[in-house]
Amino acid sequence: SADTSPIRATLFPGDGIGPEIAESVKQVFKTADVQIEWEEHYVGTEIDPRTQSFLTWESLESVRRNRVGLKGPMATPIGKGHRSLNLTLRKELNLYANVRPCYSLPGYKTRYDNVNLITIRENTEGEYSGLEHQVVRGVVESLKIITRQASLRVAEYAFHYAKAHGRERVSAIHKANIMQKTDGLFLKCCREVAEKYPEIKYEEVVIDNCCMMLVKNPALFDVLVMPNLYGDIISDLCAGLIGGLGLTPSCNIGEGGIALAEAVHGSAPDIAGKNLANPTALLLSSVTMLRHLELHDKADRIQDAILKTIAEGKYRTADLGGSSSTTDFTKAICDHL
Amino acid sequence: SADTSPIRATLFPGDGIGPEIAESVKQVFKTADVQIEWEEHYVGTEIDPRTQSFLTWESLESVRRNRVGLKGPMATPIGKGHRSLNLTLRKELNLYANVRPCYSLPGYKTRYDNVNLITIRENTEGEYSGLEHQVVRGVVESLKIITRQASLRVAEYAFHYAKAHGRERVSAIHKANIMQKTDGLFLKCCREVAEKYPEIKYEEVVIDNCCMMLVKNPALFDVLVMPNLYGDIISDLCAGLIGGLGLTPSCNIGEGGIALAEAVHGSAPDIAGKNLANPTALLLSSVTMLRHLELHDKADRIQDAILKTIAEGKYRTADLGGSSSTTDFTKAICDHL
Ligand SMILES: CC(C)[C@H](C(=O)O)[C@@H](O)C(=O)O
Ligand SMILES: CC(C)[C@H](C(=O)O)[C@@H](O)C(=O)O
């Protein structure tokens, strides 16, 4: 666009390797001359000494105001509130859809070629309701909640995405043969939305069968939309097909056009601060953020540079079998820009 | 054993291709001189004209009396009661553990070599409680139930199995970071049992991560034990690694030493009666039944003959890329006995 005033975006570097890989994104954006001004906030597992908080109201407001943000990994120490951190962000910002593009990286060989899948996960309800209780000693229950509103919203997003990205098919993943009411409602909503998109093929696939088909032949699928837990499972399975969470971008979509892109891998405390982390997932996530801002030229340039660097194979971090540092890998990407 | 009086076993050929593949098992058992007398009952989607029933009390009693049985596929026409058939069998016979050995078949190439996994699935509760209701219009909920009793029972079975089969490790698969109470109780039970088996390694793996690791490197796992739905998903994923449900045996274990082996693939109505079906899954399931009866010699001989026939590749059914009929494939197996 002709407007050159900088866009403001929120940055949560996160825990562990988060700050290093966030630095890598800043570096690449600077080199690519992306006019973004980062509003950096600490959100993470340690109490921030400056704010005495894991997560300040200002951090949330920053995303709400900027409408775009990038989030590094947040650690999962049991009982230390990680759960509430990731889930709190989703809840507070109403991040109703989690979108994970998953494609084979040229030159990085796995058992699968030409994977090209999009998983779109309902991100607010289902098995993540947090409603659980002990009925009597030794008998506990969890509530899975499915609502028409959230199901329609994520289905809309999936079909809209499919159409906008020239995709052919949306598969709704479910277990309605067992959970007829909950998953049944989810499917009903998908069907309603599907009718408004006659140009997009629509099908329904049972989750167990979907997983079997994905490992046999991922090319059978295109865009997949599903309730929260199935999305959690299938998006990681898909990531595994192309090499793991270190290579897959993720973006959370919220009401009012909010997009919070994120690396979904762990915070890798064992290698934190050692300049060994692979910034690819966060970099590719930042690309999805740029696309959300319709900065497609910048997005293309940066994505190309990342993919070229990986394809060349000269600079690769240890998790990809190389011995490059985070900064050398980042520099190699910048050199391709 | 020296006792040559025939063992009685129940046979439910099931729907679609069920009768043909059951015939194949009978043929192979006869050729291998297995002293089994089949008690055949119809259980399936059509009303049996002789009994006017989908599932008679006598069919259930037959399994309860014989303690061993073999079950073919039962169809899933929506609203036609398939759900209740499979689940009813599990419930009525208290089939608390579903065991699926999943190993690469020599000579049948997939993307994965040397897969050798056992999934052990809790088979009676969890997300399969059937408890669902509409809270208000557009808001539905399902109850996931986890009990100490069922969790201990399946964990016991898994560790017992691991020990009896010389396995090294049991991994409990869960999502206790989200469902702290339900999956938390499941893990607590696994830990209690693990303590009684110090010779078996024990670990806990979150389901999303487990799926990613399975597709990246299945050799990371050995025996997996998990709640119902995760077992449904992961056992199919594992089947996909080695070629699909047409090749994987399954056995349901019930209280009092009942074993109901089963083919878990569909009833394939499109090819039913055409002598095209692949009987491998039911044959390998019948082998697990023989092992349950401690007829290891017969089990070994039959398993070898099946694996040799597949490895040679001369006789293969259409689903495996060949053009053999069910009967020719069966004959080839018999020739190897
Ligand atoms: C860490 C965990 C709470 C989270 C989830 O289950 O959603 C993670 O697996 C993810 O996919 O973002
Ligand atoms: C058909 C269906 C009800 C069943 C299940 O979900 O358990 C099947 O997938 C299985 O694994 O046996």
TrEMBL record, chains A, B:
Domain Isopropylmalate dehydrogenase-like: 8-333
PROSITE patterns, per database record: IDH_IMDH
A Pfam entry, by short name: Iso_dh
InterPro entries: IsoCit/isopropylmalate_DH_CS, Isocitrate_DH_NAD, IsoPropMal-DH-like_dom
Required cofactor names: Mn(2+); Mg(2+)
SUPFAM superfamilies, sorted: Isocitrate/Isopropylmalate dehydrogenase-like
Taxonomy, superkingdom: Eukaryota
Keywords, ordered alphabetically: Magnesium, Metal-binding, NAD, Oxidoreductase, Transit peptide
Record-linked Gene3D superfamilies: Isopropylmalate Dehydrogenase
Family: Belongs to the isocitrate and isopropylmalate dehydrogenases family.
Name recorded for this polypeptide: Isopropylmalate dehydrogenase-like domain-containing protein
